[in-house]
C-alpha cells in the first residue's frame, strides 16, 4: 500500500542551531504527518563570539529558483510557506517563482529584520516584501513588531488594538491575517487574532514565561501550512497550530545561548 501523504513546500532560510528557520519548518511538517520539500533562501549562523548576532549569507537567486523548480516538479504541491527571504533580489525571485505556479495557499511569515543586517538594507527588504510578496499571500502571520510595521501603527498594547491593526493588513488585500501578540503584548495571555471576511476570532492561552522562544513563530506558521496541506480550513489550521506551538514552547529546550528553542517533537496531536 502506498501511504497517503500530503505535501507542502517551504521557502526559507537555514538557522544552523535548528531552533528556527527551515529546520523548524520541516520538523513541524513531519510531526504533523506532512511531507516537506524545502528551498533554501539564505544561511544564518549565530555568532557566539559576537553576542549571538546573526551572520547572514544569501543563496544566489538562480539557485533559489532552481530549488523551487525541482521541488514542484518532483511533487504536486499546492501549499507553500514563505519564511525568511532576506534581500530584495531574493524577494523578487521568490515572488516571481511563486506567482508562476498556482498554489492554493501561500502562507507568509513576514520575517522583517535580521539583526545582522544594515538598517538601510533592511528597509529595502521590508518595502520589497510588502510590495512583491504580501500580495501573493493567502495567510500572513506577523508578530507584534511586524503587525505594527505592516499596519503602519505606532503601538499595540491591547487585543482590540491588535485586531484593529490586523484589519488594516486584511484591507491591504491579504485574505487571512493571523496577528500574534506573543509575550510582548501586555497581559497574562499569549493572544493571536485571526481576521478574515468571516470576521474576527481570538485564540488565547496563558503565557508560558515572559521570554521569546526561538523558532516559535516559524513553528506556528509551518503548522498552519501543514494543516492546510492536509485540507483543513484556515480557521481549523490556526487552531491546531496554536496547540502545536503551545506544546513546543512548553517543552522548549535550554541552550548555551541566551534563548531557548521551540521543540516540535512535543506535540502529540
Ligand atoms: O525566527 C525568525 C527566523 C527565521 N528564519 C531564519 C532565522 C530566524 C531567526 O533567527 O535565522 C533563518
From TrEMBL:
Residues 16-254 form the Pyridoxamine kinase/Phosphomethylpyrimidine kinase domain. One of its GO terms (molecular function) is phosphomethylpyrimidine kinase activity. GO terms for biological process: thiamine biosynthetic process; thiamine diphosphate biosynthetic process. Its EC number is 2.7.1.35. Keywords: ATP-binding, Kinase, Magnesium, Metal-binding, Nucleotide-binding, Transferase. GO terms for cellular component: cytosol. It is an enzyme of class 2 (transferase). Belongs to the ThiD family. Catalyzes the phosphorylation of hydroxymethylpyrimidine phosphate (HMP-P) to HMP-PP, and of HMP to HMP-P. NCBIfam families: HMP-P_kinase. This is pyridoxal kinase.
